[in-house]
Specification:
Layout lengths: L2 E9 L11 H16 L3 E8 L4 E8 L2 H13 L3 E8 L3 H8 L1
Antiparallel strand pairs: 1-3, 1-4, 2-3
């Protein structure tokens, strides 16, 4: 069963001192994207949330274990510091759960 997560975080220490657009930046970006690809992740939305000053991502994975593996690998490589991650469900689904 697939799992969709909503994650909030910030860039990890691996990016410290890396010049945007440089070869080092491209290599780190490729490494981060490969971690997601290895887990079968599909990014539905992602970007900078100015209201909270953090990156937010909505990703769908084949299962919850794949999501946990991504969080662990991103932390281990210091590419991304996940502050919060949990299931993302539609408004309609949430409303049916509340009755």
């Amino acid at each position: 069963m697939s799992y969709t997560s909503f994650s909030i975080g910030r860039v990890g220490r691996a990016w410290d001192g890396i010049e945007p657009g440089s070869e080092a930046w491209a290599a780190l970006q490729a490494k981060q994207m490969q971690i997601l690809a290895d887990a079968g992740a599909e990014t539905l939305a992602g970007g900078w949330a100015t209201g909270i000053g953090k990156f937010v991502n909505i990703n769908t994975y084949p299962d919850i274990e794949s999501s946990k593996r991504v969080i662990a690998r991103l932390a281990a490589t210091q590419l991304f510091e996940v502050e919060s991650s949990g299931p993302f469900i539609s408004t309609e689904e949430m409303m049916t759960l509340m009755v």
